[in-house]
Amino acid sequence: MGFYDYSVTDAQGNEVSMADFKGKVVLVVNTATGCGFTPHYKDIEAMYEQYHDQGLEVLDIPCNQFAGQTPGTDDEIHEFCQLHYNTKFPQMTKSEVNGEGQLPLYKFLKEQKGFEGFGKGPAALAMSVMLKKIDKDYKNNPDIKWNFTKFVVDREGNVVARFEPTEDMKKVAECVASLI
Fold first, then answer.
1. Is 180 a domain residue?
2. For position 28, which CATH number holds?
3. How do 159-163 and 150-153 pair as beta strands?
4. Does residue 153 form part of some domain?
5. Which domain holds residue 50?
6. Distances (CA, A) of 14 to 8, 42, 89, 91
7. pLDDT for residue 56
8. What is the rounded average pLDDT for all residues in the chain?
9. pLDDT beyond 90 at 172
10. Of these residues, 35, 63, 81, 175, which one is catalytic?
């Protein structure tokens, strides 16, 4: 199966097929409203506004699996994003990205691009230290490690990049721009 064979559910309960995104660049991100990385919404919205007319779609999938940092309902999450970040891209229903209840799309994405580390810098070091306490073997599995992990899918449905939340958003934007 490929990217276009999967679907997710939007916040209104409608099925959204990845086949609807054929020919577009897609940024898939698990989000949270109460996380230190929540300000990434600002950069994601800026990318969406800049590139949406050229073929960028954002698949915002709220997830409450990381320290309970997305406790609200789908409506509350949407309201938060509108109020604080004026997001215009559609949001999906709150879902799991790891474990038995994970979205099949996320199983596929992780198979395509596994975890390769948090990079360098203070945020990367802090994430490594925190995750070692939670899972000593975290480096050796493809699971999503935290909120705002991003996957970039090209216009042909290939998963071309995975960015951990500690990655500079400028690198994410550069990757997206290179595919537009």
1. no
2. 3.40.30.10
3. antiparallel
4. yes
5. 3-175
6. 8, 26, 15, 11
7. 98
8. 94
9. yes
10. 35
